[in-house]
Structures are given as C-alpha cells and as structure tokens.
Amino acid sequence: MYFPHTEGLTLAEGAGLLGVLLADPRIRIVEVAEYASLRDRDQRCACDLVALLANASPR
Questions:
Q1: Is residue 7 very low, low, confident or very high in pLDDT (cuts 50, 70, 90)?
Q2: What is the pLDDT of residue 33?
Q3: Are 52 and 18 in contact (CB under 8 A)?
Q4: Domain range annotation of the chain
C-alpha cells in the first residue's frame, strides 16, 4: 500500500499460495506484516485480506 505497483501476486495467486502453505501441518501461524490503513480509505483491501485469510483457513 505504501508503494503501489502492478507487479507481485494477485489475490488469486496469493490465495493459491496460502492454500498450499496452510495444507502443511508445520504451519501454525500466519502473520500480516504490514497493512497501511491510511491508504485504504474505503477499506477494500482490508476486506479482501480478511476474505482471503478466512477462505484459506482450515475448517
């Protein structure tokens, strides 16, 4: 968010990667290292991030 650009993972690619990581029983914690709330005025990115984590977490 501080340095927006078009390179990097898409949400779909991130979801795929997160799914693979969470399938590994050695993974116990997922941490969001940075989120720039001041740049996410409509909270769209926050909603996308929450949905991504909720959908990827094991049930």
A1: confident
A2: 81
A3: yes
A4: 31-59
Contacts 24+ apart (CB under 8 A), 31-39: 34/1, 34/2, 35/1, 36/1, 36/2, 39/1, 39/2
Cα gap 2→55, rounded to integer Å = 26
Q: Inform me whether the pLDDT recorded for 38 exceeds 90.
A: no
Using the Cα atoms of residue 19, residue 21, residue 24 and residue 29 in order, give the sign of their dihedral: negative
Q: What is the reported pTM?
A: 0.71
| Cα(13)–Cα(10) distance, integer angstroms | 5
| Cβ atoms 22, 57 nearer than 8 A | yes
